[in-house]
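Figure S4 source data
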Amino acid sequence: MFITFEGLDFCGKSTQVKLLEDYLTAQNKKILLIREPGGTSISEKVRNILLDRNNAEMFLETELILFSASRAQLVREKIIPYLKNGYFVISDRFHDSSIAYQGFGREIPLDFVIQLQKFVIEDAVPGITFFIDIPIDEVLRRKSKVKAVDLDRIEVSESGFYERVRSGYIQLSETEKRFRRIDGTLSIEEIHQFIVEEITKYQNTTPETDNA
């Protein structure tokens, strides 16, 4: 089963990824936990380039292509082989991030971004995507608690950028059946319980041979 987590920076998805990993581990499931960008030796090197604040001169097109290159490596080296071997693959971000961040946020032509992602991921489409949604003022509140020197190249973005990204995620959640939109202002435990319930429903209605 392929599960992805999406949302604005500081939405709490990484916390939920870890809780889900612990939950599935307790059930003796085989798990591959990955993050984007990253997840392979090559992809982690690309991650360092993408998130380095010293690379402020990076063009939007470069950013999109680097994210996509990292993802292409991850899909072929890890995601597809592990799904074929019966693993639960849990990804902290996936291709929807590029649609939301580079398509909506950076305003790169959306049709091109979507087509590029289809090429990159091939058949590795998530079964469930959890979108943890928080308002922009909550993003800014949580970001204010982080030291400026600890923010990466994406996290230093202004509120207008995050507004466009959130709009993209909301649109995806309304058009993609695999999306589960969650109120990110709920407690950590409430969000986790919702996630567990949705995964249980999915497992009860999906044939075991279907990895997607």
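Figure S5 source data
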Amino acid sequence: MATHTGNSRADVVPGRRLPRPVRDFLDTEASGGMLLLAAAVVALVWANSPWSASYQSFWHTGVNVNFGRYVLEGDLHRWVNDALMVVFFFVVGLEVKQELIHGKLRDPRAAAMPAIAALGGMVVPALLFVLVNAGSDGARGWGIPMATDIAFSVGVVALLGNRVPSSLKLFLLTLAIVDDVGAIVIIGAFYSSGIQPHFLGAAAAIVLVIVLLNRAGVVWLAPYLGLGAALWLVTYASGVHATIAGVVLGLLTPARKLVPASLAREWANDLEDDPSAEELRAMTKLARHSVSPAERIAHALHPWSSFLIVPIFALANAGVSIKAEAFDTPGAAAVTGGIMLGLVVGKTLGIAGAAWLGTRLGVARLPEGVTWPMLFAIASVAGIGFTVSLFVAELAFARGPLQDAAKIGVLAASTVAAVVGAFFLRRACRSAEMEPA
């Protein structure tokens, strides 16, 4: 078991030791979390204002897209959830791929603690939800309290600044990424319906073509854009939720550099003081290829996902009418209670309990500079489920009282987890700073 090694600020808060891509990712998520919160508040106020009817009518505006004799029908709300959120899950897939190749998930021993903790943080909330809702129509929502919202949770940690050790931030990020992988598996396996095998076969064929193009070293973006759009379309038609296509595309994106960075630096050093246009074009191409496609695409799309797509999702999904009669429907109160119990209590107990068990069994250890009170507090912060929890609520329940009850539970639980987690994390970090060397 790791212990605290000193009381200097560098020991407790090694914030600058995080790799640049990780720092950039955390900064974007933290800033995006503030915008996400604002969008959620706007949606709630709008849906509970005298103009609530306009909220419902706006998001239920029909939008049809024609492909010859084929027509994709849906309203704005559905297009946000089934099409726009593909970009969000694509970015998640890119981040998972980079973690598997270059990040903490590359080393099984280093990944053991967040992976074990994430597993506990998924299983225990689901079990608590089922315990409350067993035998009722609400039991289908067992996957709702399993998720951790990266943007909100990172945003809460960012409020405490450099008090939080970088190793704890990395632990939370890795845990949330593993959590996202679990959510993706659950969505694909348990919240898809009406599976069409021939469309699944078409999706598999498209994936094979993408793999062959990668193996052949094709770097031209156009064929991948076309194949990506086709993959989304056949996945949508297959009955598997269309956002899974985004994750698959992210995982298929190469995460290794096409050109060593050292070669790009050598070329830059050898450039003349007045390089020609052709030399500059060659240098630009070389520099672009010295960054992996996964990192380059993630860098381009992550701000769009955090600052536009996820806030739009919150605006479209967080607007639930909060009224006492919302719980008159049988099972509605149990759904809300089960989600709150799962996210607020289940996440904390599941993550901290699994982490403790992992250290006792000798298969995991606390991150450097992290104390048990810090880990307990970050486990509470991980109870902020918001984005993916709302997403699963949309899949678990049809539009109506149970879905509204689920969303109320997600919003309430995420608020409680944020406040409680921030309070205990601040105390834990302050106590660590005051410990004697």
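Confidence is low (pLDDT under 50) at residues 1-16. The two ends are 18 Å apart (CA to CA).
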